[in-house]
Amino acid sequence: MQGFVNIRIDDRLIHGQVATRWATGLRVNRIMVIDDAVANDDVQKSVLRMAAPAGIATSIITEEKAIHNIQAGKYAKQRVLLVVRRPKVLLDLVNAGLDITKINIGNMSNREDTVQVKKSVSLTAEERADIEALIAAGVEVTAQMVPDDAEVPMTKYLK
């Protein structure tokens, strides 16, 4: 996908680590959040926008709008960090024909009905299946909390 420098799953969406380590380290000019619930909640959108570093634009949009905008090449000349809460969103984008080649999983908190597969990643059975489907589709899926950490293939944790 032209213009996208990193695609990350992080259930905290825009927060200190994403804002300071990832966004500035990757020299992005836009942080995109694809989340239908947040995109339709003005309070949550405002909170996320306040967490973004000054000078970095934010797009907090629905899956449908994201697919349309990306297919139209709206972000081709930008440096975009894409953040989603769950792997299903990215699987939907792949199934819509978007060319996603690599995904980084940062943090997926421990929740009800999850199994911890690594320190910062806990998955439901559905999330695990979605990640496996992304890998089967040829997407490289890695785990990496911060840019200084080594990228580790998620297959290591899905055994």
From TrEMBL:
CDD domains: PTS_IIB_man (cd00001). It is found in: Cytoplasm. Residues 1-159 form the PTS EIIB type-4 domain. Keywords: Cytoplasm, Kinase, Phosphotransferase system, Sugar transport, Transferase, Transport. Pfam families: PTSIIB_sorb. It comes from the Bacteria. Gene3D superfamilies: Phosphotransferase system, sorbose subfamily IIB component. InterPro entries: PTS_IIB_sorbose-sp, PTS_IIB_sorbose-sp_sf. Its main location: cytoplasm. This is PTS system mannose/fructose/N-acetylgalactosamine-transporter subunit IIB. It comes from Lactiplantibacillus modestisalitolerans.
